[in-house]
Each structure stands twice: as C-alpha cells, then as structure tokens.
TrEMBL record:
The lineage of its organism: Bacteria, Pseudomonadati, Pseudomonadota, Alphaproteobacteria, Hyphomicrobiales. Residues 56-437 form the Amidohydrolase-related domain. The keyword Chaperone does not apply. The keyword Transcription regulation does not apply. PANTHER family: AMIDOHYDROLASE-RELATED DOMAIN-CONTAINING PROTEIN, AMINOHYDROLASE SSNA-RELATED. It comes from Rhizobium alvei. It holds the Pfam family Amidohydro_1. Belongs to the metallo-dependent hydrolases superfamily. ATZ/TRZ family. This is Amidohydrolase.
Length: 499
C-alpha cells in the first residue's frame, strides 16, 4: 500500500495528549491509516512527500447532524419557527418521492460541499417518506461512496400520526384539513426492524467509510415499542440511536401535556438514555434532564445556526458539558442553515453562548468548540475509535490548511483562528481514509462542473413542482401558527429550562 509523509507541519492532533495545542512534526500515512506521528520520521523510498512548512494539519471535521433531504431548499425560507417551516421542507401533503437521479445528485451535492469545506464525516438523518425503500437508501450510499466521504446514514422513521404528536393539534386543526391527513397504516416495529436488518446486511460497512445508523425521529413521533426495538438493534450493532429531542418550546410543552413529564424523563423511564443515544438539539432541557443525560452517557448534536434561524433558542451547552454530556456540532439540513460548513457552525457556537449570561467564566473556549467539531463529533457518531483525532492506528481523515492566508495572519492562537477566523477558504487538501478527495480547491472524486450543469438543467422543473407542493400545504399554516402561539405562551415552568 502507498505511503504519504507530511513533513515539518504544524499539527493540531485533538488527541488526549495534545488536545488543541499545536506542535511541529511529521505524519506518516500508510494506506488508509496513520502509521506514525513524530519528528524526523523515515519512510520507504517511493513514499509521497508533502512539505508541511507553513501548513496546518488537523483532523477532518465531523458534522454530527444533517439531513440530505433538504439540500435543494437552500436559501428558500426564513422567519418561520420549526412547526411552520416543516410544512414546506417536510410537507404533510406529499408528492411522489424525488426521482432516483435527483436523489443521487441531492446526496452527492451535500457530500461535495462538505468535503470542499473540511467535513470528512457526517451523520445524514436521511428522511424519505412515505416508505422505506432499500434501493433508494442504496442510492444515497452510492453517492457518498462516489464522493469519498465518511458517513453514517439512517432511514428516519416515525409511526405516530402528526395530530397525536403535536400539542393542541386535534383541538385547533379544522376537520376538513384533518380529513386530508390519511397516511395509511403506520409502520410497525417489526416491519422497521426487518428493513433495518436488511440495510445492515446489504449496506452497512460494505465500504469501510459508510455505515447505517438507526434514527427514530423523536419520542413523540414514535411508539414506545418502535423506539425500544430501535435501541436494542442499535446496541446490538454498535451504532447510534439518533433522534430529535426538545428543539422548540412546542416540544417542551409536548412532554408535560402528552406524557406528564419532560421528553427526556419519558426517554429515561423507557430506558432509552444510553451511550448509543445521540440527541439532536437539546435546547429546552431542565437541570434534571441534563443530570439524567450525563449519567447515561448520551451525546448531543448542537445545531447552533439552525436553532437560531428557526427561533428554537440556544442550547445550554455549558451546563450540558458540566453534566457530562458529549457535545458534537451539526449543521442540521441546509434549508435550516443554508450551509453545510462546520467552520460556520464553530464560529456561531463560539459566539452565541457569550450571550447566554454575564458570567464570562462560563462562556465557551475555542478549544472546547474545536473539540466538539472533531473528536466530540466522532463520539456522537460512535466513531471515536476511527476518526476525530490524529492518532496512530486511526483513519487518515485530515485537513491541510495554508497558514499564509488572511484568516491566520498574523498567527496568534491556532484554535482561536480556526474557530473565529477560518471559514474553510484556507483548506488546501482533504484526505479521507488516506485518499486525497480535495486538493488545491478542486474535488478529485467528482466532476463538479458536470454535476452543476446537470443540476442547472433539472432544478427549475423540480423547484416549480415543489412550489406547488408548498401552495397546497400552506392551508395548514394557521393551525401550526396557533400551536406555536399557544406553546410559547404557556407558563408551566419551562422558561427555567432555557438558556
């Protein structure tokens, strides 16, 4: 197998020894993995040598939570809380699923943008209603394999009717609209388990970079037997149980009204807070919630930009960390973020928590944010033994950045530059599993111009069709607006959960 030696580079390893403290050294890559890190390393005669002087080498970034199904809706929505936004990005009244070619291109485009901007691993909470189709899931896997990215991919599931998953819904929705929401019989736990086992057998691990993960959408959207079956299989296979909990005030109201307790307490009582549990958002959590989460060893994917754009709030990240919760960073989908750049999320996460209170000792440090974007994110994906830090034996998932660029001049503190100044523009090379997938501003695995040309041809008709779908679903907006209003005005002690 071929070797690559990066010599005399500034290294930010994010390992247990160095953390975010930079040091100068060499990295020897043998095939897909890191063979040695040190000074004056030797290599075989035919080893490719990369001069690391003036370069920064760091682990590839991990996007802990995204949705490829939103990739075509960038720049389309604003000024909508989640419950209204969902009507348009995830319509109640649906057309036929996007065709196979567009499904492939949609997935590929997300992987392309991610790799160009230093994301070498992401967790795609792929949602493809109205059914679970192994051939369509394999199309997503094929796109990610072609791009060269590392990914956990789900086929997100729910089996509780929308009217029963939202507080006040049956009360405030007009009967004529209720009549339109006939989704047929919900999927059973056994049927979903059969599907998941087929996905594990045919797709999981067939490429060393690509895994299947299990993603029950949210506790209020999934019956208990389905969630319990999902957890059992996640533990058996050693993959994340990836779900959404307490993103909005409406969801904070949902727990007490539907279950008589917070959604985290509901999960706890079902035995669903485990090491495998990765929670997207975790904005409206109480101190008791956080204590249970920390004791169980759960992870949180913090979606700082998406939570702001949808008006969901600011997750109590400092208190989550203090409680022992692992934190990774996620973009969420590009419709609620408008970018797949984790560099953007790092900057916002590093800044927004300074507005959470006057005690500046509690504000996040750059090193903590960088940890969330690398090894913390790998832990949320249950891939910390594979990626997230530069260590001997781990996969060679790494970035090489040029330090002679505006974000690093003059060079002061590397971690602070990466969090507050860099936006991905300094990334010169991206390597995944020892393979160079981006170099000198160009992807090596995909013909970007050809993909852009094809999308330019196909998008007008697709977006026109989606605009008609938006028009049909707009009828539900007054109902969702009323649910949002009632939830935000309820005073059941939830304000103490926030901030």
């Amino acid at each position: 197998m071929s070797q690559t030696l990066i010599r005399n580079a500034t290294i930010v390893a994010m390992d247990k020894v160095h953390g975010a403290r930079p040091f100068t050294g060499d990295i020897l890559i043998d095939g897909a993995s890191i063979k040695a890190i040190g000074a004056a390393l030797t290599a075989e005669p035919d080893t490719k040598i990369i001069d690391g002087r003036g370069k920064l080498v760091m682990p590839g970034l991990v996007n802990s939570h995204t949705h490829s199904s939103e990739t075509f809706y960038r720049g389309r929505y604003e000024r909508m809380p989640l419950e209204i936004w969902l009507l348009y990005a995830y319509p109640l009244l649906m057309n036929d699923p996007v065709g196979e070619r567009l499904l492939y291109l949609r997935s590929l485009l997300l992987a392309m943008e991610s790799l160009r901007n230093g994301v070498t691993t992401f967790c795609d909470d792929f949602f493809d209603p109205p059914r679970h189709d192994l051939d369509r899931l394999s199309t997503v896997f094929r796109a990610y394999d072609d791009a060269g990215i590392r990914a956990n991919v789900s086929s997100a599931v729910m089996n509780i009717h929308t009217l029963d998953a939202l507080p006040f819904a049956r009360e405030v929705m007009p009967d004529d609209l209720k009549a339109l929401l006939d989704f047929g019989p919900p999927i059973t736990a056994n049927a979903y388990m059969d599907y998941c086992r087929s996905a594990f057998a045919s797709l999981h691990g067939k490429s060393s970079r690509l895994n299947f993960m299990i993603a029950p959408s949210a506790p209020q959207r999934c019956a208990p037997d389905l969630m319990l079956a999902c957890m059992d299989l996640a533990v058996e296979k050693g993959v994340p149980f990836h779900t959404h909990i307490l993103e909005t005030k409406t969801q904070a109201v949902t727990g007490p009204l539907l279950y008589g307790k917070t959604l985290i307490a509901y999960m706890h009582d079902l035995g669903l807070l485990r090491r495998n549990t990765t929670i997207a958002h975790s904005v409206w959590v109480s101190d008791d919630d956080m204590r249970m989460m920390g004791e169980a060893g759960v992870s949180v994917a913090h979606n700082a930009i998406s939570n702001l754009k949808l008006g969901a709030g600011i997750a109590p990240v400092r208190r989550l960390l203090d409680a022992g919760v692992t934190i990774g960073l996620g973009t969420d989908g590009v419709s609620s973020n408008d970018t797949s750049r984790i560099f953007d999320v790092m900057r916002v996460a590093g800044l927004v928590h300074s507005a959470a209170g006057p005690d500046y000792d509690q504000w996040l440090r750059a090193e903590e944010v960088l940890t969330m974007a690398t090894i913390g994110g790998a832990r949320t994906a249950m891939l910390e033994h594979v990626t997230g830090s530069l260590e001997v034996g781990k996969a060679a998932d790494l970035l090489i950045l040029n330090l002679r660029t505006y974000p690093f001049l003059p060079l002061n503190d590397v971690a602070k530059h990466l969090v507050y100044a860099e936006n991905g523009s300094s990334v010169e090379m991206v390597m995944v599993a020892g393979r160079v997938v981006m170099q000198d501003g160009r992807l090596t695995t995909v013909d970007e111009e050809a993909i852009f040309d094809e999308l330019a041809e196909l998008m007008p008709a697709y977006l026109a069709e989606h605009a008609e779908l938006e028009r049909r679903n707009k009828a539900f907006e007054p109902t969702m607006a009323e649910i949002h209003r009632r939830s935000t005005e309820m005073d059941i002690g939830l304000n103490r959960y926030h901030g």
